[in-house]
Design a protein that fits this description.
- It is built from 13 helices and 2 strands.
- It is mainly alpha-helical and about 270 residues long.
- It has a two-stranded antiparallel sheet.
- The radius of gyration is 22 Å and the shape is globular.
- The chain starts with a helix and ends with a helix.
Amino acid sequence: MLVWLAAFVVVPTAILIVYSFCERDELGRIVFSFTWENYHRVAEPVYMRVFVRSIGYAALTTAICAVVGFPVAWTIARAREAWRQRLILLVMIPFWTSFLVRTYAWITILKQEGLLNGLLRLLPLGLGPLDLLYTPTAVVIGLVYAYLPFMILPIYTSAEKLPGDLIEAAHDLGAGPLRVFSKVIIPLTAPGIAAGTLLVFVPAIGMFAITDLMGGAKTPLIGNVIQNQFTQARDWPFGAALGVVFLLLFALAYWLLQRDRSTEAAS
């Protein structure tokens, strides 16, 4: 285990940190001379706006996944034993298909001549064709679709362990459905919600494929900027500095979630 962590976590992270303090020459090669210039560039307004935009997209994706994923996970957890495995299988089936195939399927659905607009034309509601593809809405749809199972599964794990007797006892003591939900169900499934939030929020910040394919690369997120620095711009030190800041964001999100869980456990 320690060897695995050292080979695939510690060493790559150390290389990333070392590169972030280096420079590059005219040919894009790494020059091992210490400099803070890369981090000064990260603080420039244009990149800060990209970070804020990425956090906004990730937060919106996480919120939608939580709102949609909780009732799905709760329904699965409260289903009969024979049905649970089948419902979990339905959640897992998308993982059997390539991520790119699923993304291109959504492009087919959302484009002007796609399935969605075809169905709208059949309805007598007078709804015109929706121009969704290559918009921020399409990016959010793609992110929610990609990461929704990562919210459902942890919440399901927590909800499955919640004894039904506690809910019945709360009702017997006079608590209404809303009070039972806010005071019993949510606190006892909080570990699953926290794990799902972390599993959705962090990768959603760094996602660049959906932004390129479904957003038309019109609104770049931090993942797109980092990718461009390591490929087209050939500025590895600056890309490494952006990656280090991204790692710090991940550490901050993890610390905040752990602090909230510790506070809830203490109370």
